Amino acid sequence: MVENIWQEENDYGKLEPLTDKIIEIAEEKLKVSLPKSYINILKQQNGGYIKFNAHRLDTPTSWADDHINVDHIFGIGLGKEKGILDSEYLIKEWDLPENVVLISGDGHSWIALDYRSRKTEPPVILIDVDEEQMIELAPNFDTFLNGLYEQTTEFEEEYTDDIQRQWTIPEINDTFSANNELEIAYALDYLSSNATEQKQFIEQSLIKLLQHSKLEIRETAANYAYHFYENGILSTKCVESIVKILRNDHEIEYFAHMYFAEL
Questions:
Q1: How far apart are alpha carbons 218 and 51 in whole angstroms?
Q2: How do residues 146-174 score in pLDDT, each as one tens digit?
Q3: DSSP run (H or E) holding 185
Q4: Cα–chain center distance at 49
Q5: Which of 15, 39, 117, 212 could form a disulfide with 217 if both were Cys (CB 3.0 to 4.6 A apart)?
Q6: What's the CATH fold of domain 20-149?
């Protein structure tokens, strides 16, 4: 089994420590037996970003040839963040097959435990929503874990350079007015590191980005909105506006359910 799977010093997506009671409630609600290897890694850390960020892919998809990126694994939560207990809602939202448990994903693709033909030690599958395609990644979760590996790409090196860049407000405004979600993410990362100096600008920018015509940019903005919210950057009035925008947009409404369900 892969040891030390979790990224250090990155608490994004990390839930409250896992307990036997949480496991019991989750299995009863999902009506399945969760893989022992999955429970074991959640006892180390209950969800979040992982170091081993890629998995071999035998069957090409519409967006990948020989591997897929797996940067996070959902935990199990009973509060506003529910992890795999959001599966039922997300299955309905994205018209996914029933009797699966989602353990990673962002809307266009999901990695899931496939309980359609068995209730214990299920295979791990990739669901490509856009192509309506399902691919088996591993016969069980333990094999899936052993198939993960750490991949450093040229893109990641460029990303590191970009987030260390010193941005000006005019440059950020120009970026937010464009259609490149990667550049927008770079700019939001910079603002995240300088949030206390730019609170009002961050709030105004998020509201604007959440109403962008491009879905991928609205999704990026929704993820960062939660990040700023969790770090206490956003005012109550701004959070209320964000939740209202999310709930009125059926393509990104699920972010309101995942991140702001108690508001």
A1: 26
A2: 888 877 654 444 444 544 578 888 999 99
A3: helix 181-193
A4: 9
A5: 212
A6: SMI1/KNR4-like (3.40.1580)
